[in-house]
Design brief:
Layout (H helix, E strand, L loop, with lengths): L8 E5 L2 H12 L2 E6 L2 E6 L3 E7 L19 E4 L3 H11 L2 E4 L9 E5 L5 E5 L2
Parallel strand pairs: 1-4, 5-8
Antiparallel strand pairs: 2-3, 3-4, 6-7, 7-8
Amino acid sequence: MAIATYCLVAIDCPDPAALAEFYAGVLGGEVRRDSDDWYDLYAPGGHRIAFQRAPGHRPPRWPSEDGSQQLHLDLKVPDIDAAQEQVLALGATPLDLDDKDGSRGFRVYADPAGHPFCLVTG
């Protein structure tokens, strides 16, 4: 028996409104403001991502020397080339685009606050 029900993932960032809008541009959905320090994205499918202001925020290092990303999002896409063009236009930064001619099945980017995320095929 489960002891909890999934509610959301909260992402620390310097500008929660801007990061919520970035992910709304990637995933769709509705951004709702709770306060200047907390925004929620209600994405299609019932998923919720929260963005909270973190003074002094430092993005994770990728790749890091110890191999830990701490957390990242995998976002499934039907066309990785088209999706890449779109996320870059929204402000993503490429981190590792070598998908081994499609055999690796993912490419890695950073969102505008520096958090790594992957576009995944299949």
